[in-house]
Amino acid sequence: QVQLVESGGGLVQPGGSLRLSCATARFTNRYYTIAWYRQAPGKEREGVACIRSDDSTTYYKDSAKGRFTISRDNANDTFYLQMNYLQPEDTAVYFCAADLTGWASCWAPNYWGQGTQVTVSS
Q: CB neighbours of 4 closer than 8 A, spacing ≥ 6?
């Protein structure tokens, strides 16, 4: 059973920071990706950032470049999304997602977490 458990969401003022965590079980797959997605009210879910398991290459969508950083802690099987300079338009439910098919595609995950709410407001 694959489990992805997000935490770290909350309320933050504009310009503030949050770090989201995604706790996973140790995957048997050698090649996989972990991505962060978000879904704002009334909008489609969109990818934000992604990291590959084999070489830790990271990828960012334009909305995240320069402000968000995806990283991993191999010892704890945990992935992070550090979000800085948050703005109200970043308000959304943030999801951790994994592609364990072996194709290691960033933007076609086959497992999802339950999500964590991030609200940016003064």
A: 22, 23, 24, 96, 97, 98, 111, 112, 113
User: Tell me: the pLDDT tens digits for 28-71?
Assistant: 888 899 999 999 999 999 999 999 998 899 999 999 999 999 99
Q: DSSP labels for the chain? A: ---EEEE--EEE-TT--EEEEEEEPPPS-SS-EEEEEEE-TTS--EEEEEEETTT--EEE-TTTTTTEEEEEEGGGTEEEEEE-S--GGG-EEEEEEEE-SSS--TT--SEE---EEEEE--
Give per-residue pLDDT as tens, 76-103: 899 999 999 999 999 999 999 999 988 8
The closest of 37, 32, 75 to 56, measured between CA atoms, is: 32
